[in-house]
Each structure stands twice: as structure tokens, then as C-alpha cells.
């Protein structure tokens, strides 16, 4: 969001610099910001890891991975080498005070080199269980004393329920002020997610229709083809509700349903999002089955290739009850949305990778037209977040010919037509964190409300083992019960592509 480039010299400290996130996302993002001239002139990345390594060894490791994971990998080898020369490796033991003293000396020596007290950005790319230890030592050694200069980025999951999130936040607040804490949800960095705000509040023609008077229902889908890959150990204790719904899907819901902010200032936007989370109708334990569906994938085929079931995947218990799919119906108790169902679904090993929002408008009150074989298609606005990045408006037109019958048509805005090289989500978010713009990061009350909205569901699921897992085939669109969830209200999951292919997901 931030237009302002941070030009203050900055030191970035990455805890877990040898980990998966760092190699796939963080280093490529910093490299692309560097190549785009978005890094401050003076900056240094201190990469912390357990193993003994020289700067040279670590830089070579980063170089190799940039070749694989960076969107600009092939563009400029010299500049890439120039980029890695800004990286210093430091062996670090999270549990040892001594390591933090060494880090402190390193920070001070870089400040001296820069001739100024640099900004400090700490990135915690580590398992949540280490956050507390790191935070305690950062306070003890005094590594982040300047509220306006020193920041910390925390990855999700932020806690595992509301109670643990409150405890984590209280612990962090002993070391950091709220304005120093940047809780990341990478979906908020995606171009197409940010575009929801631009689309809604940069145009006058959609907003008057954006409410219960005109909208029949809203669907938000984040479907993945991948399974749990190498992350079985992590995913087993988490599941789709906490991994995807509590954060990514609720954030998309906020962007879709929020009121217009008074300004684009961080707090104005985050206030309006927090309102949405607060207005999610809390359901009673005995209603959980009525409003939600959970699923787990069985063996199946994705694009013709056989894939194993979740329980056969690496690191997964053979009798695991972790859900890999969630569908749910949400109501927002406010003036704008009263009575409009928001259907959310997310799953792994689905038929195709697809993140989209479908806004389905109410049917015409009366029509004398005939509709050929396709039937009447309600007006829809479809916002494709990924991998397609487009906005489609579907409406009825006259079928060419002598009779006055109708057929569906659509108008499309395709992101790829105006830009082939959008920044990656992490580039946007890191650039904002460097510039001290927290707009796209989760404020504490948002995280708390998001947990509050799903805590009852996870509690009920924990205490009532599913009886039918696995209940959907890899390569399908999830359990049948998810179709029934909508069918009860005469609705169906809508394809994000074809107008002709009405009822096909
Ligand atoms: C992460 C989840 O936050 O988002 C993963 O932990 C998931 O399980 C990923 O695969 C999806 O992100 P993206 O950007 O690939 O849609």
C-alpha cells in the first residue's frame, strides 16, 4: 500500500533464515525490491541459523534458491550477486543469551559502518513455540528500544485459539508496542486482494448495489491442488480451519463486506475490517453442524495423476482426524448484510487451484423472456484472485436471431493485460514493513475477533471426532455435504469461469 520508499538505513534480522519460507519467499522478495530500487541505499540482512556457516556459504545457498524461486531469477545475475553481498550470516542459538549478545554486537557494528542508528526489522520465520523465548531475550538485551525505528514481523498462526492468542499478545506486549508488531497475512499483499478495495471504492456504480437489497449470496473459495507436501508435521496440529479460514478467508471476507473507510490510513481501514469481524454471527455449539462442513481427502487423481490420501501423506497419522477442507455459512449481523449468506470454502487436493469471490445478485422479480437451454443466469460479479487474476461481470443479453430469447454473456477485466509482472505478496508486505506502513498487517483486535468467530467451531470439532473421514476424493470439489449446505437454501457453488456451464463448479 505504501507509496513511500523507506530511505532510512535498515538492518533486517531474519530468525529461521535457513528455513523454507526464507528461501521461497523472503529472500526472493528482498531481491526483487532491491532490483526495483525499493530497498534503502544502505541496508544489511543478518541471516540467523543454527548451523555453522560462512557468509560465502550462505550467500551461495541464497543465490541457488533465488534461481529457483525468484520471479526475476534470470534477469540480472550481477545485480543478484550485488544483492547477496548485503547478507551476513550469524550462527544463532535461540535458547542461548550469548547468541543475542553477539547479535547486539553485530547490530552495533553495522550502525557504526552506516554512521547512523539504522532502523531494525526483525522477521520471525520460526515455529510459534520459539516466539516467546526470542521476545524475552530481545527485551532483556534491549535490541528494539526505539518504537519508531524498530519493528517485528510475526508469521501466522498467531496462537491456536483465542485464549492462546491473548496470552501470546500479552507476552509480546511486554517487549513491543502494538505499532511495532506486524502480524502478517500474505493474502493481504496479493494484488487482486488489494484491488477489491480499489474496485469497490474507486467506482460509483457497484457500491449502491453492494448490500442485502440486491445481493443474494456471496461465495469465497480458496481451493488448492497441493496437499500438505513436506509440512505434514505442522499441518496435523492445525487443519484447514486454522490454517486458512481464520486468517486468509476471513480477511477476504473483510475486504468484500467492509464499509468505506474514512481514509486510506492504516487505522481507518483496519477499523472497518474489525467491524466486519465483530459482526460475524457467533454460532452456538449445537449449531456448528448446521453451519459448517469439514472434510479430509482420500486418494484420487489430480489432472489425471494419482495422488495419495491425506492419511497416507508424509508425517500424517494413519487415523488422523485433521480436516483438510472446510465449508461454512456465515451471516453478518449489520444493516448492510443482514440475511445474506456468505459461503466460505477452502480445501487441499481440490480439482484445481482457484481463489475467487462470487457475488450473486438477486434474480429479476419477473421475466417473460425465454432462456433457451441454458436457463436464466442471475447477474454475477466474479473476482478471481489467483491463478486467474480478473474481474467478470455476468449478465443476460439477447440471443442473436429472430426470437427474443436470452443468453448469458460476460465482460472481463484481465489483470494480465495491463501488467505481466505484478509484485509478489511478500514484496508488497515487506516494502510496507520497511516503510512503517501497517495497513496490510493484522492489528491485534482483528486477530482476536477472527479467533472469537471460529473458536466454537474448533471446540466442537475437537470434542466430536468426524465419523466419515476421509470423505472427499483428491481431485474433487470436496465433500457432498458442502453442496447440501448451500442446497438447503436453494443455492449451489458457482463456477468461477463459465457462464454456459451453470451448475458445474
Ligand atoms: C498458507 C497456508 O498460509 O497459505 C498453506 O499455511 C497454504 O497451507 C498457503 O498452502 C496458500 O497460499 P497461496 O499464496 O499459495 O494461495
TrEMBL record:
Source organism's superkingdom? Bacteria
Q: What class of enzyme is it?
A: oxidoreductase
Query: What Pfam family does this protein match (any one)?
Result: G6PD_N
Give all residue intervals belonging to the Glucose-6-phosphate dehydrogenase C-terminal domain: 197-493
Q: Identify the GO cellular component terms for this protein.
A: cytosol
- GO BP field: glucose metabolic process; pentose-phosphate shunt, oxidative branch
Look up keyword NADP and say if it applies: yes
Write the record's keywords in alphabetical order, separated by commas.
Carbohydrate metabolism, Glucose metabolism, NADP, Oxidoreductase
Q: Where does NADP(+) bind?
A: 16-23, 50, 93-94, 156
- Binding annotation for substrate: 186, 190, 224, 243, 348, 353
Signal peptide position in this chain?
Answer: none
Pathway noted in the entry:
Carbohydrate degradation; pentose phosphate pathway; D-ribulose 5-phosphate from D-glucose 6-phosphate (oxidative stage): step 1/3
Query: Which residues are the active-site ones?
Result: 248 (proton acceptor)
GO molecular function, one example?
glucose-6-phosphate dehydrogenase activity
Q: Quote the EC number.
A: 1.1.1.49
Catalytic reactions on record: D-glucose 6-phosphate + NADP(+) = 6-phospho-D-glucono-1,5-lactone + NADPH + H(+)
Domain Glucose-6-phosphate dehydrogenase NAD-binding: start-end pairs: 13-195
> Which family, according to the similarity comment?
Belongs to the glucose-6-phosphate dehydrogenase family.
**Role description:** Catalyzes the oxidation of glucose 6-phosphate to 6-phosphogluconolactone.
**Protein name in the entry:** Glucose-6-phosphate 1-dehydrogenase
- The protein's organism comes out as Flavobacterium cupreum
Amino acid at each position: 500500500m505504501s507509496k513511500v520508499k523507506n530511505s532510512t538505513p535498515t538492518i533486517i534480522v531474519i530468525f529461521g533464515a535457513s528455513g523454507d519460507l526464507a528461501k521461497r519467499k523472503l529472500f526472493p522478495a528482498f531481491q526483487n525490491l532491491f532490483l526495483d530500487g525499493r530497498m534503502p541505499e544502505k541496508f544489511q540482512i543478518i541471516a540467523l541459523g543454527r548451523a555453522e556457516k560462512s557468509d560465502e556459504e550462505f550467500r551461495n545457498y541464497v543465490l541457488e534458491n533465488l534461481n529457483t524461486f525468484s520471479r526475476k531469477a534470470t534477469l540480472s545475475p550481477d545485480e543478484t550477486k550485488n544483492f547477496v553481498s548485503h547478507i551476513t550470516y550469524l550462527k544463532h542459538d535461540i535458547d542461548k543469551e550469548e547468541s543475542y549478545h553477539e547479535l547486539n554486537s553485530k547490530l552495533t557494528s553495522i550502525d557504526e559502518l552506516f554512521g547512523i542508528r539504522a532502523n531494525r526489522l526483525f522477521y520471525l520465520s520460526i515455529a510459534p513455540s520459539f516466539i516467546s523465548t526470542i521476545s524475552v531475550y530481545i527485551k532483556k538485551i534491549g535490541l528494539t528500544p526505539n518504537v519508531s525505528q524498530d519493528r517485528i514481523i510475526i508469521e501466522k498462526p498467531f496462537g491456536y485459539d483465542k485464549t492462546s492468542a491473548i496470552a501470546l499478545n500479552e507476552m509480546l506486549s511486554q517487549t513491543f508496542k502494538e505499532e511495532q508488531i506486524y502480524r502478517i497475512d500474505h493474502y493481504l499483499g496479493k494484488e487482486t486482494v488489494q484491488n477489491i478495495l480499489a474496485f469497490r471504492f474507486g467506482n460509483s456504480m457497484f457500491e449502491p448495489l453492494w448490500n442485502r437489497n440486491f445481493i443474494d449470496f456471496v461465495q469465497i473459495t480458496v481451493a488448492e491442488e497441493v496437499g500438505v507436501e513436506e509440512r505434514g508435521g505442522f499441518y496435523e496440529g492445525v487443519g484447514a480451519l486454522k490454517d486458512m479460514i481464520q486468517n486468509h478467508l476471513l480477511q477476504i471476507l473483510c475486504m468484500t463486506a467492509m464499509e468505506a473507510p474514512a481514509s486510506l490510513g492504516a487505522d481507518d481501514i483496519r477499523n472497518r475490517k474489525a467491524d466486519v469481524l465483530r459482526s460475524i454471527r457467533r454460532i452456538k455449539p449445537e449449531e456448528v453442524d448446521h453451519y459448517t462442513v469439514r472434510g479430509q481427502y482420500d486418494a484420487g487423481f489430480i489432472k489425471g495423476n494419482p495422488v495419495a490420501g491425506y492419511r497416507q501423506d508424509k508425517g500424517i497419522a494413519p487415523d488422523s482426524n485433521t480436516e483438510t477442507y472446510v465449508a461454512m455459512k456465515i451471516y453478518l449481523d449489520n444493516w448492510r448484510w443482514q440475511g445474506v449468506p456468505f459461503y466460505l470454502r477452502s480445501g487441499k487436493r481440490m480439482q484445481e487451484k482457484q481463489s475467487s469471490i462470487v457475488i450473486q445478485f438477486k434474480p429479476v422479480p419477473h421475466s417473460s423472456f425465454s432462456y433457451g437451454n441454458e436457463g436464466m443466469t442471475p447477474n454475477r460479479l466474479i473476482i478471481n484472485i489467483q491463478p486467474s487474476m480478473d474481474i467478470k461481470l455476468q449478465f443476460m443479453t439477447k440471443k442473436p436471431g429472430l426470437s427474443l430469447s436470452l443468453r448469458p454473456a460476460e465482460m472481463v477485466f484481465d489483470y494480465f493485460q495491463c501488467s505481466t509482472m505484478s509484485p509478489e505478496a511478500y514484496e508488497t508486505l515487506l516494502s510496507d514493513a520497511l516503510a512503517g506502513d501497517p495497513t496490510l498487517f493484522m492489528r491485534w483486535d482483528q486477530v482476536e475477533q477472527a479467533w472469537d468467530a471460529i473458536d466454537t467451531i474448533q471446540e466442537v470439532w475437537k470434542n466430536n471426532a468426524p465419523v466419515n473421514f476421509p470423505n472427499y476424493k483428491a481431485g474433487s470439489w470436496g465433500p457432498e455435504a458442502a453442496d447440501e449446505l448451500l442446497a438447503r437454501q436453494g443455492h449451489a457453488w458457482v463456477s468461477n469461469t463459465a457462464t454456459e456451464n451453470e451448475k458445474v463448479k
